[in-house]
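Researcher: For the record, we're logging two predictions in this thread. I'll number them. Prediction 1 follows.
Model: Prediction 1, sequence and structure:
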Amino acid sequence: MIGASNFFELAVAVAISLFGLNSGAALATVVGVLVEVPVMLALVAIANKTKHWFAK
């Protein structure tokens, strides 16, 4: 379902319809996509703050 992160609503609908509303797959689909963006932004911020450590 991570590959379908561009289609968040579709990924959630498929996970819920296949595995049920109370399943771990539906929860992972929702939480995974919601956590993915802040983690990527944090990694970019860390890379920008430490770029002076590395030679060009």
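Researcher: Logged. Prediction 2.
Model: Prediction 2, sequence and structure:
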Amino acid sequence: MIGPINGLISAFRKEGWPIVFPTDAFRKEDFIFKGRMKPHSLAGTEAAEIVD
């Protein structure tokens, strides 16, 4: 999945088109972690960063 996405990013950069990186990040106390889901993609951590 990463390879094709990187190909699209390269093509967009070549054309000068905008690239949008949608993300989400959570806080440890967010409601989403009250059930069985373990904390992930915490704001301010490496796990929430965009990797280019």
